[in-house]
Amino acid sequence: MSESHDSAVEHLEIHECWDLLGANDFGRLAVATETGVDIFPMNYLVRDREIFLRSAPGSKLASITQRPSIAFEVDGRRFRRRWSIVVKGNIDRLGFDSEIVESGILELKSLNPTAKWNYLRISPESVTGRRFKASRR
């Protein structure tokens, strides 16, 4: 991990980012739409440095079909330290049963109980992370 000039923000190494991504299961998917950007809360899993999601039909799927470039953010805290990981890359639908089974996505539980039969994969182009000490309120 490297620290910024003021030592308030630590920039995480890539392995630290993946460790945090793998230890969590809830993030936010940002997709470009015709009218701007939408953000969707999503459960996810990590396998082989790719991120897998399940989705119901709707505007999210329509947007990523036309504009597959996305951002995905996960954040959390441990004691008085906060962290944030941002993944930028492309997203695609898994099209083969073998891909779906090998990804492990069928085991992913969603906080939202709607049926989600669309299986998605984020192929990262960049992964960045930061950690900082939370200020007192």
Describe what this molecule looks like in 3D:
The protein has a six-stranded antiparallel beta barrel. The model has no long low-confidence stretch (mean pLDDT 91). It contains three helices and eight strands. With 137 residues, it is an alpha+beta fold. The chain is globular and about 45 Å long. Helices cover 18% and strands 51% of the residues.
Taken in chain order, the helices and strands follow as EEHEEEHEEHE
Mean pLDDT: 91
Q: Describe the main β-sheet briefly.
A: 6 strands, antiparallel, barrel
Task: Give the fraction of residues assigned to helices.
Answer: 10-25%
Alpha plus pi helix count: 3
Radius of gyration: 16 Å
* Total number of strands: 8
Number of domains: 1
Write the layout of secondary structure elements.
Blueprint: E1 2-3, E2 9-11, H1 14-22, E3 26-33, E4 36-47, E5 50-55, H2 59-66, E6 69-78, E7 81-93, H3 97-103, E8 118-133
Antiparallel strand pairs: 1-2, 2-8, 3-4, 3-6, 4-5, 5-8, 6-7, 7-8
Protein name: Pyridoxamine 5-phosphate oxidase
InterPro entries: Pyridox_Oxase-rel, Split_barrel_FMN-bd
